[in-house]
Write a structure and sequence with these properties.
single chain, alpha+beta, eight-stranded antiparallel barrel, four-stranded antiparallel beta sheet, 3 helices, 16 strands, 16% helix, 43% strand
Length: 218
């Protein structure tokens, strides 16, 4: 059972895979802060209206917060309390309890690495919209995307693959790392859980999806 805090998200691997499936199925996690083993002093209910909850890398549950202020609150509480209880959203049943001894120093180090706020976004390079990317293995794909100027919800971009359009969220941090790889511009996280990584370096434009790199072809 592990808990990993990144710049803009947290990952929790409960004791059993069935617990991870339960969290994803319910799309909810109760994050409870305790000053000792028995006294709850605060809580945050992560759900579909304020976070994206999904299983990644075949096991951990990843919680990506929609509002950096929400994640800032969670980090503040982790840093100043003694015990963290991650529990079911609809029952008083715990998935995991963590001793937070030394967490204050860990949170300070995380914030130093990520920047002034809990959610770190590198300086945004203008995303190369209008570019068509081509490539693939056995299945050839043409991929393009657009970022909405005035999104109505968290789905602030659209990705079109061989004429089929999907809603997506933008992420300007590279899997929580403070130093993204060369040329990284934006990650596009689609509603079907597909992830597209957009890169631009000088006159070179490319996109990574799955095991393949797609190059500019227009």
């Amino acid at each position: 059972m592990t808990l990993e805090l990144q710049c803009d998200r947290m990952r929790f691997a409960p004791a059993g895979y069935e617990d991870a499936q339960d969290i994803e199925r319910k799309q909810g996690l109760s994050i409870r802060f305790m000053k000792d083993g028995a006294t709850e002093v605060g809580a945050f209910q992560a759900g579909g209206d304020n976070a994206e909850i999904r299983i990644v890398d075949n096991y951990p549950v990843e919680i990506v917060f929609s509002d950096e202020a929400d994640y800032g609150f969670v980090l503040d509480q982790i840093g100043k309390n003694a015990v963290l209880n991650l529990a079911m959203i609809d029952q008083d049943v715990s998935y995991g309890i963590f001793d937070l001894t030394g967490s204050g120093a860990a949170i300070r180090s995380l914030r130093t690495a990520c920047g002034p706020s809990a959610v770190s976004a590198p300086a945004r390079i203008e995303a190369p919209e209008g570019v068509v990317y081509c490539g693939g293995g056995g299945i050839k794909r043409q991929i393009e995307f657009t970022i909405l100027e005035k999104p109505e919800d968290k789905w602030d971009s659209r990705v079109t693959i061989n004429g089929e359009t999907l809603r997506a969220m933008t992420a300007y941090s590279y899997f929580g790392k403070s130093e993204p790889p060369r040329g990284f511009v934006v990650a596009l996280l689609c509603e079907d859980r597909a992830e597209f990584l957009v890169f631009k370096d000088g006159d070179e434009d490319w996109l990574e999806f799955g095991d393949y790199t797609y190059r500019k072809c227009n």
